[in-house]
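quick one, 377 residues, struct below
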Amino acid sequence: MFTTGSKMFLGATALSVVATIVFSASEGGAVGLMGTVGLITAVVIFAFLAGINLFTRDGNTPSMQQGVEHTSSAAQPPVGRSMWPLGAAVGIGGLVIGAISKPVVFKVSVVVLLAAIVEWMVQAWSERASADVKYNANVRSRMLNSLEFPILATVGAGAVVYSFSRVMLSANPNAGLWIFVVIGALIVTGGFLFAGPRLTSRRTIAAICTVGAVALMGVGVASAISGQRTIHPHPVIDDASQKPLCLEGGEEEVDEHASQDVSLKSSVVANIYLQEDGDLIALINGMPGIEYHELTVPRSAHLGVIFHNDSGEAQRLTGRFGTFPDKPEAVSCTTAVHPGKSAYFGVSIPKSNAASSTPFEFIVPGVDGATIKIVVP
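---
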């Protein structure tokens, strides 16, 4: 005997089969093919639903069954509302968008979809754990809260940090200071109000925090879409464009805000001093009190020296490491070191089977006679 639901779905299945046959016979070409595929899909769906209804008998239970008033589906409490179907739908939509746009969107959508499925399954299971709603909610909390809270806190903190970084990267540099001041003042004021006497309820505090986080993320997304401002890179002393500066001396933009002190460094072979009289000397580590005007440096070994400027004006130490066939002279230098300050200088002699046409030496540009010869075995 067919149940009411089965009759409806069986009728819909039969009607879909007839519509498929009539449409495929009357229409041809691409339109006919697409329409036929759609109608066949409807046939499969209605047949599947009819089969489920036949198997479950529309959820009907025999009236004479013992305890049916407690065990039947109709006697169970209704399923609670859930946001996870919406989360799963968002994840599926993200998969489609990510497949044709950016891989990161696809990967994030996979994570969202898996999380929604797990949460949905656990919620559905816990709601049937017992007849006590509070007990069911406690079961779900014990199972998932220890996993949810750290993940949500990490994702929330990451979203806030990322949004704030997008805002700062798109804002005018002069406005950045005031943005920090305003946001810092708001955070301090909010913390004072929340930590003080209970003048506001928990719901009000949660609402304020939620509105603030959503506003920040909204502004962050808008800033990310508009793009960051143009940030001109600060030149570095190792650029090839700075080679004339290493040989001629002087101070340029590359020397602005340069470090003037050296912390503990490894592989330091010597300390080089530019004295007040313009003499350049080297003190080799392990041999105190002996002034050298010549250093022995092996090829391809990365070593370091510390340059101390004891003269009366800013100077830089330049290393000339040879000129080999088909290559320009290897030149490197420190940034301009202020009087009484120091800088670290990494030394690496390039490997070559040919002889260099220029000397290996340390010099101070603009200071005559300030030279230390480099001997390369």
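The mean pLDDT is 83.
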